[in-house]
Amino acid sequence: MSEATATLAQSKTEMTELVLPNDTNNLGRALGGAVLHWMDICGAIAAMRFSNRQCVTASMDHVDFISAIDLGEVAVMEAYVFNVGRTSIDVKVDVHAENPKTDERRMTTTSFLTFVALDEDGHPTPVPNLTCETPEEEALRQEAVEGRTEQLESVIDRMDGL
């Protein structure tokens, strides 16, 4: 890893999208592919803010859509870096649906994405070490680490049942 450090707070990113007809299926709900696209963009921005480098998606963990986002609602994506490797950056992305008329907000999905930082020639390059400057940042980091572990264990358990 690099000698440089960056904080979880430096990576925090919030992105919003108004769900329009082109983003929906025939039931008037956001297409899963559109939501995945927004998650990927939000996660990439968090990784780039953290590393000050161009970043590309290496993987996206399992995604369960637990609540629909309806036409006219606002999709709110929130992302932050929670772990790093030598050239890789792990990002948690939460998605909420927000009713702009009532300000009601509900969770719709969460996933964990891994990005790789690139140098000017497009080759993987070292990333800063992650630091958490406050107990709140450390709690967010720990929540993401535990959440990813639980999610992966759940996927493995489901696969074992096949």
Automatic annotation (TrEMBL):
Q: What is this protein called?
A: Acyl-CoA thioesterase
Q: What InterPro entries has UniProt attached to this entry?
A: Cytosol_ACT, HOTDOG_ACOT, HotDog_dom_sf, Thioestr_dom
Q: What is its EC number?
A: 3.1.2.20
Query: Which Pfam families does the protein's record reference?
Result: 4HBT (PF03061)
The enzyme's first-digit EC class, named in words, is hydrolase
Report whether DNA repair shows up as a keyword of the record.
no
The source's domain of life comes to Archaea
CDD domains assigned: BFIT_BACH
One Gene Ontology term of the molecular function aspect:
fatty acyl-CoA hydrolase activity
> Taxonomically, what lineage is the organism?
Archaea, Methanobacteriati, Methanobacteriota, Stenosarchaea group, Halobacteria
Tell me the keywords, alphabetical order.
Hydrolase
- Residues forming the HotDog ACOT-type domain are 9-121
Q: Which organism is it from?
A: Haloferax namakaokahaiae
